[in-house]
Amino acid sequence: MAAAMTTPVEKEVVVDRVVFALNGQRYEVAGVDPSTRLLEFIRTQTPFKGPKLGCGEGGCGACVVLIAKYNPKTDEVTEFTASSCLTLLYTINFCSVITTEGLGNSQDGFHAVQERMSGFHASQCGFCTPGMCMSIFTSLINADKSKRPEPPKGFSKLKVSEAKKAFSGNLCRCTGYRPIVDACKSFASDVDLEDLGLNIFWKKGDRNPDVSELPSYTLGGGVCTFPDFLKTELKSSLDHLNNPCIAASREGWYHPRSIKEYYELINSCLFSDSVKVVVGNTSSGVPGYKDQDLYSKYIDIGGIPELSNIVRRESGFEIGAATSISRTIEILEEECESISSPNGSVVFRKLANHMSKVATPFVRNTASIGGNIVLAQRFPFPSDIATILLGAGVTVCLQVVAERRQITLEEFLEQPPIDSTTLLLSIFIPHWIPDSGTNTSLLFETYRAAPRPLGNAVSYVNCAFLGHASVDEQSDSLVLSNLRLAFGAYGTEHAIRAKKVEEFLTVSYLRFLKASQSLESLWPVVLLIQQIQMMSAICHYQRDRETFSSDDYKPVGEPIKKYGVELQASGEAVYVDDIPAPKNCLYGEFIYSTQPLAYVKSIKFKSSLASEKIISFVSAKDIPSGGQNIGSSFLFGDEPLFGDPIAEYAGQALGIVIAETQRYADMAAKQVIIEYDTEDLSPPIITHGEQAVEKSSYFDVPPELYPKEVGDVSKGMAEADHKIPSTEVKLASEYHFYMETQTALAVPDEDKTLVVYSSSQYPELAQSVIARCLGIPFSNVRVITRRVGGGFGGKAFRSFQVATAAALCAYKLRRPVRMYLNRNTDMVMIGGRHPVKAHYSVGFNSDGKITALHLDLLINAGISPDASPYIPGYIISSIKKYNWGALSFDIKLCKTNNSSKSVMRAPGDAQGSLIADAVIEHVASVLSVDANSVREKNFHTYCTLQLFYPDSAGEASTYTLHSIFDRLVSTSSYLDRAESIKEFNSNNKWRKRGISCVPLIFNVEPRAAPGRVSVLNDGSIVVEVGGIEIGQGLWTKVQQMTAFALGKLWPDGGESLLERVRVLQADTLNLIQGGLTSSSTSSESSCAATLQACNMLFDRLKPVLDRLQQQSENVSWDTLISQASNDNVNLSASAYWVPGQVSNKYLNYGAGISEVEIDLLTGAITLIRGDLVYDCGRSLNPAVDLGQIEGSFIQGIGFFVYEEYITNSDGLMISNSTWDYKIPTVDIIPKQFNAEVLNTGYHKNRVLSSKASGEPALVLASSVHCALREAIRAARLEFAISTVSGRSPLEFQMDVPAPMTLVKELCGLDIVEKYLECLSTCERAAGA
Question: What local confidence, expressed as pLDDT, does residue 163 receive?
């Protein structure tokens, strides 16, 4: 093909190599697939592993890098963040790329950003931390380039308000964002250091902390972002950029430098194959518009000068279509400040403000303004930008082959979808200058109602309103002209103008009250008609909290930084996918069913470029003789690896595609064609309601796991003054959304053995499942897990399938096989939290005392039992936090044709707590009393606590809930705030607030755990435990425990030993019986085992120390270990800690208060404040525990409010992307967040008196759901909304989650119409 390239234009525009700098090193790449992403190249062809693949959509920030471009004409360097998962490698020619390793590392020293992230405890699992560091660093250096005054030494020019937005597009599932905000704010020139949270640089309560105590920051970042050698090379090659060498095997990337060259390319014979026209390639991350096959050719039009021109005119300005959205925002803001366009500033300013809420910063930096509009023109893409530009009266310039056209944006959107023969050249935005000499005001507003104020969230509704308004002096009325009312593409193919409304308002007059009020009232009326109002901007985040620690067990109890946290920040921490690929490594991706309960007749692949990349296909037929079709297992049964011959649910694995790269495997999997047959099969059971009940499709719950009822419900009901009959509460599923998706690397070894690196919370059971699948001894399988990039229960049992699949492929092909599920596949296949449908009947007295509660629970377990038989007990345990008088229940664990549901952070407890508080609030609404009075009325006494929790109530002194609740009510000023909310609600018609306080009783059951401590001859210490580091700080606490226990042998104490302790990765053939890391107990169990092992070493070393001290009073640690080694003392001790009968179970206590505000017109939710008090016993590490508590609470907000797990009619998850599934982001956390970790003193049956912290606080997030209910009640009370005839408007069903769409619905879909009808009636009455 290359030999046939004879035309001059072809030779000029073909690009066969790319030159760039990566962390200051020169790279020249040639002959690569033109579809190669920058992230793929960095991770597979360089030693740098900092950027991570989290979503492949530009929606999470894990892959963020800094890209710097140099302009030799102005000698200026421009830096911006970019999603390396979307950035095509060939687009960075002569660019400089910086990853977090380029900021700092263990060899060259860490950067201040990395050190402050570490010191403010802003990294837990660490998977998102490199991307966070890059977003923050880029914000710092760009702020430092501004013309602001020089900041004090050690600070950046960044402002506190900007610091909060610096990483607004980055997702974190662990921390709850508070410590990341503090780390970022520490650089801000206007920060009050005393306002910053817990850190290692100064102690809580220290007066006047100084910036000198923080890691030093150099203004400008202190990092060379564009090396001199690349500047020199760029300058010297300017004359040759358009004419690089051509190699026959390296074609595929074309870079036209003019429109003429573009059309010559399009019209040439080269493009009979698939071709993609790109600028930023960000559309490849948008669900519905992602690449469905590989492309053999790309045309990069970003280098065409006409597409990047900025032309300012008197009537407005023209922006080239290839201009990035971020640059467009900058231009609009510059125009706002320009004295030459004062009348246009209102339009430009609001356009810029709205665009800053579109996508994420690192997507806006590379996405072109024209690409966004073209996407909206070609597809039903809900573009905010198209809508607001339509409202601003924008025109566009098109090139259609040889013809150039100027048309309105409205006309462009209404055209048939354009193809590559039509180029969008530019967008013209008018100034909208009113007529001179008239008293005319320009009105322009843009609105969006979206799940998140900022960050990656597509709007539910968007709109823009523009017009001129003046007062007619004769009629004393408001006159409107030039109206443009634009609404987003919902229910239509694209954004549209409401022309009939425009005409109506133009010819109509609004009665003049007074000019200021009249202008102000215009747009609220229109908003009421359309039920749209803009959401709040990013919150002003404040926090306060206290921690209590003890000096008894130093360094245990100290808030030291997380073990290895700097390595996480610098990208040097090794996760499974960071392990270098072995030689001849292959990659796999699942093929899964899209239908439930169907025979799989055939599996074929479409003829495509991606299909050509398939090396092998592995299915159930490839399981070795003697092996089993098993992909997961637990106490209650097995789950098959493949659906064979029947696919039992949508999302079940049917086979594995093998290719040479992960991207090829992922794309090849999209080419599958599966033929199904449902003949002779019963209809699938998709719901856990009527379908499962009708067919009695249940899993058994073993009698020993079925929860115990309390008292006589019939008697309690008979004694009740009031009864509420069967009332429903529904709780949907929740996806784990760990930042690191499921991944495994299987490497064949000698004699039919395998080493499997798995991101797993349960390597021990993974080993057995793999061995059973392959039909080999357990000893032939070594499973290694170093660290996990977030788990939350999703990598307990659900990780086995990926590890087993990789092992099967490696075993068959005798080559290493890596599987790293893409986010969409992970979400479809892995399952999530158990959906629950509850019906409750409750009896209670007039004083609020509940006498009886009966529950009917239907729990959707999915297709396999997994750990589901435990869930009924967990739900009821959480419900028992109140004294119901008598409690009975009927629980059905439903087997359905859905993906298997599994444990997820606070499994069962999250659902049970919400059900319990729904009952309490329902009782309160019937009695018309404050819910808190009903709660406290039904708190346990110690006697009833023993009745409801006979195995775990503990001693009376440990029951701290009453004091915690009282403390929280007092410190949060709950009563005063409740009164203020009443006043607020009475004064605000369209905004309402609510506040709620919920208690927590969490049943904890530690499990046995192994531990081994070894002291090497140089005095360094190696520790092995069964628990897995998944971000919860397990290694940190083990490190502290080791230093404490062995520090008793050294006069300097345990703190001096901390740096000598190394915790090793889990290895199933090195330390057996590692068990399951879950339920927040693995840290204390691992610490207990470590303490036992250390005590053994202490007993061995103490006699040696005594002998040495007879010779010299001061004996160093090194001397002690050297002598012990010479004396042949065994310096390695192993222990297997088993909790005693008394310490087997205990209760955790806490309470949380949340205050929210809702917008009745949109349902938009603002979290005003959150207050938590939590009993941690004696915290092993207050910083770690505080982070776990705050992160757990924020994750709980996601479950109760934001995260919509949506499936189609076949049970297939369809909200399977970062675009559709919204976990909490920094812009939706409470504006004020106060968390207090209590030290409740000595607990003789706990590990150094500690208690679990990782899961229980999630339950407290139900307070947000309850507060929403209170706010909605206030709305319904004002508008007398009742959806059920005869029922009080205060009684309504509010399911989980409760996103803004549900909030709006519960406030009453017809509120606006009723309100307008009321106004009309009043006006007619007044006129009469």
Answer: 83
Nearest-angstrom CA–CA distance, 291 and 719: 65
* Three-state DSSP state, 397: strand
State which residues of the chain have pLDDT below 50. 1-12, 242-250, 509-549
Catalytic entry in 40, 1255, 1270, 1278: 1255
The neighbouring-strand residues paired with 1151 are 999, 1173
1116 and 1040 Cβ atoms separated by less than 8 Å: no
Read off the DSSP letter of residue 343.
T
Beta-strand ranges (E) seen in 813-940 are: 817-820, 836-844, 850-862, 887-895
Q: Indicate the residue type of 1323.
A: E
**DSSP code, position 1294:** -
Residue 371 assigned as binding residue: yes
The neighbouring-strand residues paired with 1233 are 543, 1170
Give me the pLDDT at residue 523, please.
41
Classify residue 1178 by burial, with Cβ atoms within 10 Å: 0-12, 13-18, 19+: buried
CA 302, CA 322: separation in Å to the nearest integer? Answer: 6
Helix axes 909-927, 1262-1279, angle to 10 degrees: 30
pLDDT per position as a tens digit, 613-633: 999 999 999 999 999 999 999
- For the stretch 919-924, contacts whose Cβ atoms lie closer than 8 Å and that sit 24 or more positions apart, written own/partner, are 919/840, 919/842, 919/850, 919/853, 920/882, 921/996, 921/1266, 921/1269, 921/1270, 922/724, 922/727, 922/842, 922/1291, 923/724, 923/842, 923/844, 923/848, 923/850, 924/848
Beta-carbon contacts of 718 under 8 Å, excluding residues fewer than 6 positions away, are none
- What burial letters (b/e) apply to 632-652, b meaning 16+ CB within 10 Å? bbbebebbbbbbbebbbbbbb
C-alpha to C-alpha distance for 1299 and 109, rounded to whole angstroms: 45
> 319 has which bridge partners?
310, 427
Residue 532: its pLDDT value, please? 33
Q: What is the reported pLDDT for 517?
A: 40
> In degrees rounded to 5, what are phi and psi of residue 698?
-130, 155
- 98 labeled binding residue: no
Task: Write down the residue that tokens 């508008």 correspond to.
Answer: 1279
Task: Tell whether residue 125 is among the known ligand binding residues.
Answer: yes
Q: Who's near 457: CB < 8 A, 6+ residues apart?
A: 450, 451, 1222
Instruction: Give the other-Cβ count within 10 Å of 935's Cβ.
Output: 24
In the chain, DSSP finds a helix count (H) and a strand count (E) of 38, 46
CA 1280/CA 1282 separation, integer angstroms: 6
Of the chain, the end-to-end C-alpha distance in Å amounts to 85
Sole residue written with tokens 């559309």: 283
Residue 905 counted as an annotated binding residue: yes
Q: Would you give the distance in Å from CA 220 to the centre of its chain?
A: 30
Q: Please state, in angstroms and rounded to a whole number, the distance separating the CA atoms of residues 556 and 498.
A: 66
Ligand-binding site membership of 184 (annotated): no
Q: What pLDDT is stored for residue 513 in this prediction?
A: 34
Rg, the chain, Cα only: 32
User: Distance between CA 510 and CA 518 in Å, rounded?
Assistant: 8
Retrieve residue 1056's tokens. 């001096």
Going from the C-alpha of 751 to that of each of 249, 459, 777, the distances in angstroms are 41, 57, 12
CB-based contact 320:409 (threshold 8 Å) = no
Question: Catalytic site residue 1255?
Answer: yes
From the list 33, 142, 127, the residue with the least C-alpha distance to 88 is 33
* Cα angle 891, 896, 897; round to 5: 170
For residues 592 and 822, give the distance between their C-alpha atoms in angstroms, rounded to a whole number. Answer: 13
> What distance in Å separates the CA atoms of residue 156 and residue 87, rounded to the nearest whole number?
29
H or E segment to which residue 1277 belongs: helix 1262-1279
Measured CA to CA, the distance from residue 1233 to residue 1154 in angstroms comes to 9
